[in-house]
Amino acid sequence: MLDLSSIFNGVIHSLTEVWYFWIIVLIIFIARTPLVKGVLGEVVVNKVIDFQLDKDIYHVLKNVTLRTKDGTTQIDHIVVSKFGIFVIETKNMKGWIFGGEHQKMWTQKIYKKTSKFQNPLHQNYKHEKAIANTLGIADKKIFSVVVFIGGSTFKTDMPDNVSKDNQFINYILSKQIQIFTYEEVNKIISILGGERLPNTLETHKQHVKNVKANREEKQQSSDVCPKCNSELVLRTVKKGENIGNQFYGCSNFPRCKFTRQINE
Q1: What is the mean pLDDT of each run of 10 residues along the chain (264 residues)?
Q2: Which end of the chain is more exposed for a tag (fewer CB within 10 A), N or C?
Q3: Angle, alpha carbons 38-40-43 (nearest 5°)
């Protein structure tokens, strides 16, 4: 006799296993998105700062959004101390990392996949300028710090202020010349606390909107491909009805087929 209850229980059990499977897939997918990867990287840096820096000397401001001339800038961490202000940019990345202090673009290589990304030191420079303008202080009192989280490997020599995992603490602790008095440290914290925009979803959404608008404006006159961040090069049509016409094409062709007309 057909055991319907056993069949029913088997179907329910199978559906339950499938349900768990898709939940796991969803979690993995979400964890790989840039936003979540960025948040996870910042959490790691938070823990390192909490455990390895003296809270009586080093005062931390997290996820600070400040106004700039062209919109806003969002800073992962600002560490204020009598030894200076440390502006920390976090990168949660894997693979091999190639880059130089003065290069516009750096390279990430994972197996056969190669991608370009903005030099994080240049990216952090905007953060430094925003803080200097907000406080009305000299740039030399502000130190840029870039930390890579996520198991990446540097394949080129990096400056002292670019490091992996918890090694950025060594750079911060290496600065032992007093720059600010106790009163000045408190004033800096107070000003930044008053000038920072509310740490809300609306602030984040507006910041993303500002970044997108600025990026689109720059791309119209930029020599960088908006799709893969590779260099745009001048090319000439070699056949067809437009033969002889020139255009800008991605140097990563044929992997990237982005083109831009000269008059765009």
Answers
A1: 57 55 46 56 87 96 91 94 97 94 92 91 93 95 95 94 95 97 97 93 84 66 68 83 82 80 64
A2: N
A3: 110
